[in-house]
Design goal:
The complex is a heterodimer of chains A (about 120) and B (about 110). Chain A is an all-beta fold and about 120 residues long. In chain A, the strands form three sheets. In chain A, strands 2, 4, 5, 6, 9, 12 and 13 form a seven-stranded mixed sheet that branches. In chain A, strands 1-3-8-7 form a four-stranded antiparallel sheet, with no helix packed on it. In chain A, a hairpin with a 4-residue loop joins strand 7 and strand 8. The radius of gyration of chain A is 14 Å and the shape is globular. By secondary structure, chain B is an all-beta fold. In chain B, about 0% of the residues lie in helices and about 50% in strands. Chain B is built from no helices and eleven strands. In chain B, strands 2, 4, 5, 6, 9, 10 and 11 form a seven-stranded mixed sheet that branches. A four-stranded antiparallel sheet of chain B has the order 1-3-8-7, with no helix packed on it. In chain B, strand 4 and strand 5 form a beta hairpin. The model of chain B has no long low-confidence stretch (mean pLDDT about 95). Chains A and B meet through strand 5 of A and strand 5, strand 9 and strand 10 of B.
Chain lengths: ~120, ~110
């Protein structure tokens, strides 16, 4: 069965970085893109960007350029998101989610989600 | 970015009742509309995509409709497991954007 298993909760200090992972199983990893989505109580669900798991190509929401860096390790079927220069506003639950493609064009609906990673930024 | 406005913000329904949740896009999205259900402490689950296509494994009491800028999710014969927060999401223009959610409770 399809699973996206994310890494554990993170407690980070302002100004630092965290790197969270999303390990896929149960399907051909490179046949689907991986997107990342931020959830907070105040802002709701916000789309961060996606990575083409085959080529490593990325597309970021303008709002998260410079904040998030998406990478992939095809050998382990794992996608990563690094968040840098953390501030308290980055405290949130971060999800990875799978989306299908047609002719290498992503379809922007998400059929499987990871369990989420809570990132807390506090001094 | 396309703004997605959901209504109502919350509602309560009795078991067996039919409920509807509305989603209004700030511009036409050509049926590129998905609905998700989220339960406390869990990740969102896809219910409907392309406005009216039922995701595999989702009960047929869930249905979606709409066109242009206006879309709706209907839940027929409300069941206890249908409690949760429901989100709409447009996938027409990048970046995808989500509605603010509708909290559905059992009356």
């Amino acid at each position: 069965q399809v699973q996206l298993q994310q890494s554990g909760a993170e407690l980070a200090k302002p100004g630092s970085s965290v790197k969270i992972s999303c390990k896929a199983s149960g399907y051909t990893f490179t046949s689907y893109y991986i997107s990342w989505i931020k959830q907070t109580t105040g802002q709701g669900l916000e789309y961060i960007g996606y990575i083409n798991t085959g080529s490593g190509g990325t597309n970021y929401n303008e709002k998260f350029k410079g904040k998030a860096t998406l990478t992939v390790d095809k050998s382990s079927s794992t996608a990563f998101m690094q968040l840098s220069s953390l501030t308290p506003d980055d405290s949130a639950v971060y999800y990875c989610a799978r989306s299908d493609t047609i002719a290498a064009i992503p379809l922007y609906y998400f059929d499987y989600w990871g369990q989420g990673v809570m990132v807390t930024v506090s001094s | 970015d396309i703004q997605m406005t959901q209504s109502p913000h919350s509602l309560s329904a009795s078991l067996g009742e039919t409920v509807s949740i509305e989603c209004l896009a700030s511009e036409g999205i050509s049926n590129y509309l998905a609905w998700y259900q989220q339960k406390p402490g869990k990740s969102p689950q896809l219910l409907i995509y392309y406005a009216s296509s039922l995701q595999d494994g989702v009960p047929s009491r869930f249905s979606g409709s709409g066109s242009g800028t206006q879309y709706s999710l209907k839940i027929s014969n409300m069941q206890p497991e249908d409690e949760g927060v429901y989100y709409c999401q447009q996938g027409y223009k990048y970046p995808p954007t989500f509605g603010s959610g509708t909290k559905l409770e059992i009356k």
